[in-house]
Amino acid sequence: MSDSAICSWASGLAKIKRRAEGFRRQNKQQELDLPALEDSRGGGEAPLSKICGVKKPLCHTNSLTQLPRFGVEADNEMELGKLLEDSGKWGLDVFKLDTFSNLRPLTAIAYQIFRERDLLKTFKIPSKTLLNYMMTLEDHYLKVPYHNRMHACDVTQSVHVLLSSPALESVFTDLEILATLFAAAVHDVDHPGVTNQYLVNSSSELALMYNDLSILENHSLAVGFKLLQDESCDIFHNLSKKQRQSLRKMAIDLVLATDMSKHMSLLADMKTMVETMKVAGSGVLLLDNYTERIQVLQNMIHCADLSNPTKPLEIYRRWVGLIMEEFFEQGDREREEGLDISPMCDRHNATVEKSQVGFIDYIVHPLWETWADLVHPDAQDILDTLEENRDYYQNLIPLSPTTKDPPSSQLAAAAEKIQFHITSEDDDQPQPDS
What we know:
Layout: H1 3-33, H2 77-85, H3 94-100, H4 105-116, H5 119-122, H6 127-139, H7 149-163, H8 174-186, H9 196-201, H10 205-209, H11 215-227, H12 241-256, H13 263-276, E1 278-279, E2 285-286, H14 290-305, H15 313-336, H16 352-374, H17 380-396, H18 407-428
Antiparallel strand pairs: 1-2
Helix pairs in contact: 4-6, 4-7, 7-8, 7-14, 8-12, 11-12, 12-14, 13-14, 13-16, 16-17, 16-18
GO molecular function: 3',5'-cyclic-nucleotide phosphodiesterase activity; metal ion binding
Keywords: cAMP, Hydrolase, Metal-binding
Family: Belongs to the cyclic nucleotide phosphodiesterase family.
């Protein structure tokens, strides 16, 4: 072999060694930065490597030559339009909206609200992108009796109305309004129709993933934000980095506030705010810092989440039937699995009328009464309807065929169960620093 051939061979060998060393360093770095997701038993991904429940988004608007007037294809646009004209009124019938929007109530109400509030223009959100995201989000709401697309629509529309309270006029920025509406829309996505406590008691994968803390709320946030990663769904694409970070923080703070274990602390904070609130000469609240502003918005979304008893009676009664069926289905599962049956979840013992009066007296009324004090007098009509609905169920209690105890003792027992269920979950979870 000639000297030149030897030099060429040595040079090539050195290159191969350098390249191999480079691959080793690269692989080592990948091991440090990105732990392998491969199951050591071979094939497939390791458990918890993905956010469960997330499906590949479909580009819903690709097949449309032009966008429907109200964002969704409707057989009767006139009736749909009439319903959406009332998007700013308390007590919108979301069951009718579900029908006339071809089972797209969340998409229809979100499209209406975003246009009314000029959010598409303010944040440069293409209409197609908003519709893609909302339809994809709606696809991820499960077919459970209560925590479904209609509940998401109801809470989103209720938040929209509460944001329009004269006492809150011009109080919140456009970004805060966008974050609040987004949080309302995503707050129960992929909800499986059972409580956080059931997920803990049954040792579910979700409880494992979120360490037993606000499991459903954390999961819904993860799904809601994950869907934004698809380019056709990224409604926040044109926000600045700082805006996206601020919106994400607010949305997390808001959705976590819908965990019922936070109820007592939220209510206490709002009562303190009522006692110390500052009001401008026009009657508008003065909120000086992020803590005060987010507390009002947290209580707002919590009120919207617990607003069924404040709606017109026929709508409220439909919601009661749905939530009780979801509770009973959980109770059936608990019975089959040998778990303790949760309060109000035993279809053989629960009394709907008692549970509703107890729920209103000890949870809903104190919350809404305090909210009404905060935005006085804007929520008085809502409070009046709540009290009328409470009286309706109170008057049904003596007619219950299983009633043996006096109504007052029954209510006390029902309320004790409700309060125990909330405060016991609250005690199990560390409270955030205030």
